[in-house]
C-alpha cells in the first residue's frame, strides 16, 4: 500500500536533459550563476558611470569613511571638457547676460585662517570662455610693464588636448613676482601662465563677482590685479609659496603707495586631469582633540581631501582641493594689521595626467606710503 502512495519515480525527460546540457545546469541556473559571479563588479561599473556625471560626489557623503579609500576620486581621465563647449563665444551677449545673473554657493573650510570653498564660482561655459580669452588675448602695451605678469609670448608645448582652433600661443612659462628686482623664473613653478584683459566684459563681470564676494573688505577704489590663467600639464606644479609679498610692494606710478594681495581666489577652470590638487599643508580641518577623526571627504562630497599621500615626501597634514571645473577656493592672506599669514602657504601639486587650468584673482589693497 505504502508503495502505491509514493509518486512514481520518472526518469528526466529527454527535453529536460537537453535543456540542462552537458554541464548539468539549466540555462536559468547558468544565468543565475553568472549574475551571482558578476554582482561584485556592479558597484565598480556604477561608480565609473557616475563619476563621469559627477554623481559620485553626492553619493560619497553617504559612504562610511573606511569605504571612501576604495573610491578615491578621479583616478581616470574624464572626457575632454572643451569638446562640449568648443563653440562657446566669450563675446556672446547671452553668456554675458547669464554672467550678471550667476549665483554660487559657499562652504567654510576654515575660520582661522579664513578659507572658503565656492561652488560654481563660474559656470562651465564661463570657464571655457575665460580659457579661450587666455589663448586669444594680447596684453595691451600699457600693461606690459606690470611687474606681476610677463607679456605673452611662449610657443605652446605639445598638449594632450588641442587648444581651440582660433587660439594664439599666449601661455608663457609662469614667473614668480619678487619684492625687489625683476620677475624670476624658478624651478618650483613649472606651469605656464597667461594674463586676461581686465577690460573684457566677461573678465570684468567675473571680477565684479569676486568683489561682491569680498564685500566690505575691499574698498571701491582698491582694484584687482590682472587676472592670471595658469596651465599645468603632466608633472607640472607650483611648489609651496604664499601669494602675498613679505614686504609691501611700491606702486610703479611714482606715488610711493604700498600695496599687497590681501586675499586670493583660485578658480579651477579645466579639470580633466588626475591629481594636481591645490594643497594647504598648514590648514587642518576637523582635526580637533581626538585626532584626525572627522569625515572631511564625506562632509565636502569628495571635493576637499586630507593632505598626505603615501610615499609623497613633503606632503603631510593639511587639506587639498581637487580641481573641479567652476569651483574656487578663496582665502585671506593678510590680517587687519597688514601682516601676512604664513599659514596659508600652499602649492599646486604635480598633475598626474591630462590638463589643469586655473585662474588667479588677486585683489590689491593699499597699505600706506613708502617712508
Ligand atoms: O595651481 C594651483 O593649484 C595653485 C596655483 C597658485 O597657488 C598660484 O598660481 O599662485
Ligand atoms: Fe598661489
UniProtKB/TrEMBL annotation:
Residues 223-365 form the Fe2OG dioxygenase domain. The keyword Metal-binding applies. One of its GO terms (cellular component) is endoplasmic reticulum. GO terms for molecular function: iron ion binding; L-ascorbic acid binding; procollagen-proline 4-dioxygenase activity. The chain crosses the membrane at residues 28-47. It comes from the Eukaryota. Residues 176-192 have a biased composition (Polar residues). Residues 1-20, 171-192 are annotated as: Disordered. Keywords: Dioxygenase, Iron, Membrane, Metal-binding, Oxidoreductase, Transmembrane, Transmembrane helix. InterPro entries: Oxoglu/Fe-dep_dioxygenase_dom (IPR005123), P4HA-like (IPR045054), Pro_4_hyd_alph (IPR006620). SMART domains: P4Hc. Its cofactor is L-ascorbate. PANTHER family: PROLYL 4-HYDROXYLASE ALPHA SUBUNIT, PROLYL 4-HYDROXYLASE ALPHA SUBUNIT DOMAIN-CONTAINING PROTEIN. This is Fe2OG dioxygenase domain-containing protein. The lineage of its organism: Eukaryota, Fungi, Dikarya, Ascomycota, Pezizomycotina.
Amino acid at each position: 500500500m505504502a508503495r502505491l502512495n509514493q509518486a512514481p519515480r520518472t526518469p528526466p525527460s529527454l527535453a529536460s536533459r537537453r535543456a540542462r546540457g552537458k554541464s548539468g545546469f539549466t540555462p536559468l541556473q547558468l544565468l543565475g550563476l553568472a549574475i551571482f559571479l558578476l554582482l561584485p563588479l556592479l558597484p565598480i561599473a556604477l561608480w565609473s558611470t557616475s563619476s563621469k556625471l559627477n554623481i559620485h560626489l553626492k553619493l560619497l557623503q553617504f559612504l562610511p569613511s573606511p569605504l571612501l579609500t576604495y573610491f578615491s576620486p578621479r583616478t581616470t581621465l574624464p572626457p575632454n571638457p572643451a569638446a562640449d563647449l568648443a563653440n562657446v563665444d566669450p563675446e556672446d551677449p547671452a553668456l554675458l547676460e547669464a554672467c550678471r545673473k550667476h549665483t554660487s554657493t559657499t562652504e567654510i573650510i576654515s575660520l582661522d585662517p579664513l578659507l572658503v570653498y565656492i561652488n560654481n564660482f563660474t559656470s562651465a561655459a564661463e570657464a571655457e570662455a575665460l580659457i579661450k580669452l587666455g589663448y586669444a588675448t594680447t596684453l595691451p602695451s600699457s600693461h606690459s610693464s606690470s611687474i606681476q605678469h610677463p607679456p605673452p609670448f611662449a610657443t605652446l608645448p605639445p598638449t594632450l588636448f588641442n587648444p581651440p582652433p582660433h587660439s594664439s600661443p599666449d601661455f608663457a612659462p609662469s614667473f614668480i613676482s619678487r619684492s625687489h628686482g625683476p620677475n624670476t623664473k624658478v624651478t618650483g613653478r613649472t606651469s605656464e601662465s597667461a594674463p586676461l584683459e581686465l577690460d573684457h566684459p566677461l573678465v570684468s563681470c567675473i571680477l565684479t563677482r569676486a568683489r561682491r564676494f569680498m564685500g566690505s573688505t575691499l574698498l571701491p577704489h582698491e582694484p584687482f590685479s590682472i587676472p592670471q590663467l595658469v596651465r599645468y600639464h603632466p608633472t607640472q606644479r607650483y611648489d609651496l609659496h604664499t601669494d602675498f609679498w613679505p614686504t609691501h610692494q611700491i606702486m610703479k606710478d611714482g606715488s610711493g603707495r604700498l600695496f599687497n594681495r590681501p586675499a586670493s581666489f583660485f578658480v579651477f577652470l579645466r579639470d580633466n586631469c588626475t591629481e594636481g590638487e591645490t594643497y594647504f599643508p598648514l590648514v587642518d580641518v576637523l582635526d580637533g582633540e581626538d585626532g584626525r577623526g572627522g569625515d572631511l571627504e564625506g562632509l565636502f562630497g569628495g571635493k576637499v581631501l586630507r593632505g598626505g599621500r603615501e610615499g609623497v615626501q613633503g606632503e603631510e597634514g593639511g587639506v587639498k582641493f581637487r580641481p573641479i571645473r567652476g569651483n574656487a577656493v578663496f582665502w585671506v592672506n593678510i590680517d587687519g594689521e597688514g601682516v601676512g599669514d604664513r599659514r596659508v602657504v600652499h602649492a599646486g601639486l604635480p598633475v598626474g595626467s591630462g590638463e589643469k587650468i586655473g585662474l588667479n584673482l588677486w585683489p590689491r589693497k593699499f597699505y600706506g606710503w613708502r617712508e
